[in-house]
């Protein structure tokens, strides 16, 4: 018998499989704008914090406009580092990270959607980045060795997981001592009403699964992370309200940067 977590995970998988298979850059599902045009996707990404220079360097089809921030802006990646992207989608953050860590570094993208992994690998073939690879897997059960990662990035994905403590525990496992989290995600401003939590469409839109900042701080502390910093971005209200027009989700959630270190 399927558990509630199984139902949530399957719902998320189906939403992002539809996005990966869509002809447009964005089908209007998931975190991101309702309009699927390339112009809207580009505008959405710049509003999330990506520079035009970053976007121009990407292979076509790797920017789906689905995030809620730019983890590159907080990661401060260095040449030679090994980076892991949780929920790598079509590859946008992996390709940007690959250039930052240079040939001496390495980037691994993990996504649970077969069609999204296929899309990312197709995109990878368009660019000369031998240090980027994509692996199929769940972020609660990472196909990554212990203590092998310098930096973990993620963009509006962990909030979709029905078992966030498991995600952060896995992150802790694979990080090297001194390794760090540099995550853009959605957090809840207040306890979400039951009708919001139970709405599968709002889950796919990155709302109903969001945890509060105190909940996240407790999770990270219990797992063993230190130097925890969670900073909200008030300006994200402007694009969050476009994810599901009329739902007032901007009253419940906000984009935030989540940083922490494995001591």
- Give the low-confidence spans: 23-30, 33-39
- Report mean pLDDT, rounded to a whole number: 86
Could you tell me the number of beta strands?
7
Total discrete domains? 1
Strand content is 15-25%
- Morphology call: globular
CATH architecture: 3-Layer(aba) Sandwich
| Sheet with most strands: strand arrangement | 3-2-1-4-5-7-6
Gyration radius, rounded: 17 Å
What level of helicity do the residues show? 25-40%
Topology as a string of helices (H) and strands (E) = HHHHEHEHEEHEHHHEHE
Largest sheet: 7 strands, mixed
CATH class: Alpha Beta
The CATH superfamily bears the name Vaccinia Virus protein VP39
* End-to-end Cα distance: 40 Å
CATH fold category name: Rossmann fold
Structural class from helices and strands? alpha/beta
Query: How many H/I helices?
Result: 11
